[in-house]
TrEMBL record, chains A, B:
PANTHER family: CARBOXYPEPTIDASE 1, METAL-DEPENDENT CARBOXYPEPTIDASE
Name the UniProt record assigns to this protein: Metal-dependent carboxypeptidase
Lineage: Archaea, Methanobacteriati, Methanobacteriota, Stenosarchaea group, Halobacteria
Reactions the enzyme catalyzes: Release of a C-terminal amino acid with broad specificity, except for -Pro
Species this protein is from: Halovivax ruber (strain DSM 18193 / JCM 13892 / XH-70)
Domain of life: Archaea
Amino acid sequence: MAPEQEATSVTDAYEELESRVERLTNITAGAGVLRWDQEVMMPEGGTPARAKQLSTLSSISHEELTDPEMGNLLDELEAADLDEAQSAVVREIRRKYDRATSVPTELVEEISETTANAHPVWTEAKEEDDFETFAPTLETLIEQKREYAEHIDPDADPYAVLFAEYEPYLDLETAERVLERLRDELVPLIEAIGESDVELGGAFDGTFDPETQEELSRDVLDTVGYDWDRGRLDTAPHPFSTGTQFDARVTTRFDEEDLLGSITSTVHEFGHANYTLGLPDEGYGTPLGESRDLTVHESQSRLWENHVGRSEAFWECFLPTAAERFPALDDVSAREAYEAANQVYDDNLIRTEADELTYHMHIIVRFEIERDLISGDLDVEDVPEVWNDKYEEYLGVRPETDAEGCLQDIHWSHGSFGYFPTYSLGSVLAAQLYAAAEDEVGDVDAQVREGAFDELNGWLRENIHRHGATYTTPDLVEKATGEGYTADYFIDYATEKYGRLYDLDEY
Amino acid sequence: MAPEQEATSVTDAYEELESRVERLTNITAGAGVLRWDQEVMMPEGGTPARAKQLSTLSSISHEELTDPEMGNLLDELEAADLDEAQSAVVREIRRKYDRATSVPTELVEEISETTANAHPVWTEAKEEDDFETFAPTLETLIEQKREYAEHIDPDADPYAVLFAEYEPYLDLETAERVLERLRDELVPLIEAIGESDVELGGAFDGTFDPETQEELSRDVLDTVGYDWDRGRLDTAPHPFSTGTQFDARVTTRFDEEDLLGSITSTVHEFGHANYTLGLPDEGYGTPLGESRDLTVHESQSRLWENHVGRSEAFWECFLPTAAERFPALDDVSAREAYEAANQVYDDNLIRTEADELTYHMHIIVRFEIERDLISGDLDVEDVPEVWNDKYEEYLGVRPETDAEGCLQDIHWSHGSFGYFPTYSLGSVLAAQLYAAAEDEVGDVDAQVREGAFDELNGWLRENIHRHGATYTTPDLVEKATGEGYTADYFIDYATEKYGRLYDLDEY
């Protein structure tokens, strides 16, 4: 072909790819609304029909992604001269295409069936505190997931393949190195806190009317600058955020005895939604308008939850609003609120109720166990004991039941192995990004104290959100911070903050 | 083939058809949830992405319906020996398949583009009270719809083809005969009412807090037996009902000065949702679990709205509850409430605010005009004058503006021609079904007075709902009532009820 003809053909091929990918986006986004509806709005009777609707959309999406013509277009475009944005789109779709085409449909359906059945089995096992009931299902899921990984890359560590489903661009070695470092640095810190005489007090002890809590959650979202024209707040038993740059919704939960929980949960989910809302409108329909993977997403939620929402500056800004809603807080000082928001509970067994610091121990325990389950170094029957041993070692506390131990979280019953580490990897990235933002926009604390979040959010928009999935995670981090992904900032942040809060000489 | 092989092949073909049709149902039902969300929950910013999502689902659904393999399966099954239910499924899918395959995709897309652009044009024309602005768009829509009809059946009256989109089994001659009869019988009745000295009073005059109205709407739904495990109530500017037998939702609206409006709107939408909820669970995914077309659907909403909700018995049952919510109603008697609920407003120009009786004049005017527009007997430019003349003739009142006249309703801008008549056809059927139910379950009024709706609803479940689309509309009516579709019952009902209410000697 003459160069001109070739260019036309490449342009056509790219347009065809774009149009197919936009269809996929529309199906996925539509399914996202159905899932949001299921969690937040749907009457219980709707379950069987909704399951069928979601299953059909998932099949269609799989069929469209794995259409051989998609493969031809990718082949053609990979051989062509594309600009940076086009190359990024091709790179992201290629990854999804290769994964989707390499696993036989039968295995996907088997896994889907096992997980559908696993949910009630896990629920019962947890209720009855009986790991034995869940063990055979877990065994099957591990075997199927190993097989799944082998189809994708027979030469790779299967756990690394599964991990890449959630975080494709930070390799497992990096993840392991970071998690080991967190363990090695945080275990002694948590021990020291346990030995400290400091009590951070119960500024938020008491009961708080859930309806007023909801109003306060709206105040929180007003304060941090949530765009209500493109979002909404609802309640859900397990808070989450979902949507697109045009409509990114937040959910939270209200517990009469846990006002702080609803505030931190709202700020956390705001972080996710705010990332989604910062994706470029014009990128909708391709990876250029999609978020990066779980590590980056979690960095956004953790940055807002921890670096903003648990800062003393935030409480100086927000406490008066909270006290307007709940006059019982009139006598609480910003310092006391800050301290209460950062109490470390070293006797807590439940991940979802954990503080900022011990949280990572929950992650590390499950990470170490699931990695060994997939590799075959650990047998399913030994999980409860190993789980309890690790809690004793890392947190100094031993679960007395499996319900409070290895059965506490739903993820394995979903067939999710390799998901957990991204929670900690995201926290680590949050600290790195916050430090880089501080370098550039000046005294963020002073701005937060004034309720001025524009500069911080502007930095995030400019350096993270607007790029969508144009860059891989390591490139994105490098561009945003000038250096590679590192746990240094998180360790500094954690040791300095908690060293001061708990008056620890050695920190 | 040997008979046994043939049977296997037919079974396989039927199963394949079923599975394809269930996929279609899942896509359509999913799109229904997206539309509900758009009207009820979605933040405004979500509009552009939602439009794309719905457009993709609509394309996929069209592609799957018109897949040539669908045609092959239908051919094979039509030649086979099927049972009643299977034949019904094949009949219904054949009709949809033939319609979808006979219209060129380009024309479908053109119409879709015209209607998308028509909406803002109509909105502006209505706001500016300027029919001229809307006229060229209306002209284009009429031409495109004529062309559309010609593709489906070049030998048929194009308006009849369009009408069949909404009501495929009652032919246009039947519809015309019924509408003419309504006009001939109701015009003198409305005139007589206009001359009557009776004033039915303003039992519901006043202002009513919208939040309390919402509680009262929930009371209404409790009273008539809405299944909250499979439904929910929300507000929407234009109330509607949507869903499946597993999840059929109701919306209503609240106007401070119109308590009665929210109650009748809630009961009306309940009638729709209650029909959907009565469809058999096991039929989900095929026409056996889908409702019949608009006439039957509207018969269910009108039966509950008018024959139940506007009856004296209902007000004897419900008024105490209403008075609990609104103590201002303490002094109102059930008779007064009944009278207020049945006031005829012969000077009202707006369909959506019309009473039970004059409502049909609004329908008939638009029906006569749109029929003549499609046939070419009426030019677009003459619509406003003909509209106003007909209002004067049928209702004795002449609109002073087009905004209050021919521009009042959105339907034409959607490209919906042939939809309007089903509103009246449904009311007519409601009266026929209610009479048949009374014959079988005894004194329905006495039951309603006691708040006992089980027998009436049981009759509807047994005779209408559970059949889904197994029978055509005429067959369904014949089976349920023992006779063909007729306006006799509606005319009797209307003349008797309003003759008494307005003390008319001649009725």
